[in-house]
Write a structure and sequence with these properties.
single chain; about 260 residues; alpha/beta; Rossmann fold; 7 strands; about 15% strand; globular
């Protein structure tokens, strides 16, 4: 089966990026979409968010340096249709080492090719560090679609313009002409504030075809779930956040024809 690679990126931290990566991956898996979550952040929050400890030597680090096999690093999560390529602290060194590589923007793409060729996964979700460094740039070079997790506040709009410019630069440099802005996921929506509604309306006015209809609410349960190593569906399946990510997964399946 064909595999679609998504990267969830935003150079701003605290916007719900990792929460979105983990729960979108889990929601797709629950919809019978074989999914691989790739934790590309040395902080390994997506790894711990699924209940796994950092394990030295178990990440995509060796594969990025050309001396390892990324497929051998994949672990099964115990959740049907959901696998994890975890992260650990050594991955931080990849930023330095990638800069010394000849094709420094294409190392992740090369590392993922054997996994894609195997045909086991229909979707690969990459969770990036909260910065536009070489790891994030590699994820953009490897992806078919960029999903931007965007917090419902005005400062987040500045970051959106920056990341869209990066995509254009990758096109101009012929690094990844296939990369598309797959969608903008509005996160931390506070139904009580006028500001949240205004930000959503402004983004929709500027990028009407890119914003997902589903917005992710700000809920305490969403932020609590990772500390228990659980997705929101495991921690509180009736929470509005669980409903939001379930609906987002259905939008993704429809938009990108994942079934």
């Amino acid at each position: 089966m064909a595999c679609t690679v998504f990267t969830i990126a935003n150079q701003k931290g605290g916007v719900g990026k990792t929460t979105t990566a983990v729960n979108i991956a889990a929601a797709l898996a629950d919809q019978a979409i074989p999914t691989l979550l790739v934790d590309l952040d040395p902080q390994a929050n997506a790894t711990s968010g699924l209940g796994f400890e950092k394990e030295e030597g178990r990440s995509i680090y060796q594969a990025l340096s050309g001396s390892g096999n990324a497929r051998e690093m994949i672990i099964e999560t115990g959740r049907k249709n959901l696998s994890l390529l975890p992260s650990e602290v050594d991955l931080a060194a990849a930023e330095i080492e990638l800069s010394q590589s000849e094709d420094y923007l294409l190392q992740l793409k090369n590392a993922l090719q054997p996994i894609i060729a195997e045909g086991k996964y229909r979707a690969i979700i990459i969770d990036c560090p909260p910065a536009l460094g070489l790891l994030s740039m590699n994820s953009l070079a490897a992806a078919d679609f960029l999903l931007v997790a965007l917090q419902c506040e005005y400062l987040a709009l500045e970051g959106l313009g920056q990341i869209l410019n990066v995509v254009q630069r990758l096109h101009d440099a012929d690094v990844n002409n296939n990369l598309e802005i797959g969608g903008i996921i509005m996160t931390m929506f506070d139904v009580r504030t006028k500001l949240s509604r205004e930000v959503v309306e402004e983004v929709k006015a500027n990028l009407p075809d890119k914003v997902f209809e589903t917005v992710v609410p700000r809920t305490v349960r969403l932020s609590e779930a990772p500390s228990f190593g659980q997705t929101i569906f495991e921690y509180d399946k009736t929470n509005p956040g669980a409903s939001a990510y379930r609906n987002l997964s259905k939008e993704m399946i429809s938009r990108y024809q994942l079934k």
